[in-house]
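As the next step, I selected for study a record pairing a protein sequence with its backbone structure tokens, which the following lines show:
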Amino acid sequence: MAPMFSFENPNRLLLWLVIPLLVVGYILAMRFRNRRGMRFTNTSMLDVVMPKQSQWRRHLAVALSILSLITLTAAFAKPQAEVMVPRERATVVLVIDSSRSMTATDVKPNRLDAAKTAAKEFVDKLPAKYNVSVVSMAGAVSILVPPTLDHQNVNRAIDTIQPQDSTAIGEGIDTALRAIDQAPKDPKNPKQTAPGAIVMLSDGENTAGRAPLQAAAEAKQRKVPIYTIAYGTENGYVDLDGKRYTVPPDTELMKQIAETTGGRTFSADSLGELKKVYENIGSAVGYVKANREITSRFAGYGLALAVLAALGAISLGARWP
């Protein structure tokens, strides 16, 4: 069975090793006291001078003191408990085309860098409550960042994207849908798709993988709109292995993907309208596991035990009428 608690500073729990020594010291002190009492032959006289104290109250006071030390030491180690905390499920997935055609310089400084800059500007304007995920799309497609509220980490991941061979737009859409599936779950409906949208920044030229419109149809079925931004001009080209290749954007494909899913297509100079992406997402609350420090709870228990131990000690020392 997994432990109920964890500790931020578990090494501090080594202080517990002192407690057995205190228990042994108390036992030895009690034995020494009993042996010393046997030296007196006239015990009736001793009772007059020093009234007999309740043994169970003495033991109880010591036990409460030890329990207080145990609990306060645990508080000193900063205990944490795993709890379920609410978190927004709505997720925006950025799919950034990193194919070789995106290195064309018809969009300054080049298509890929322009797309990365636009993606980071979009993330910076996105309300903090929304999860963001990043998918790098070339011949190989991967989730660089699963849904997260750490938008700065998203921007750092975008900066790491480098050009690769081929473009698999259909696979990019499939991977984006899988990223949305990683958003926090709703315990009441764990299979329900989180509210979300996909923003695809690409020149739209598909060269590998499944058919893009087939993947778009699946996104429509799951009610996930795709907003596309087409990069490039008809005069775009790249130089590979000493040869020059023209790479005009497939704006028609980008438009079809957006229309199929209920999204919209944008041009590179109309990025300001991207706020419509998150305005129409909606909201839903899910729950994720998180560690929460509960030092104050342990400190409160320790204080309560210390107060009880002090009352016990006072009762032993007081002369009640």
About this structure: Residues 282-288 have pLDDT under 50 and may be disordered. The longest helix spans residues 295-317. The chain has ten helices and eleven strands.
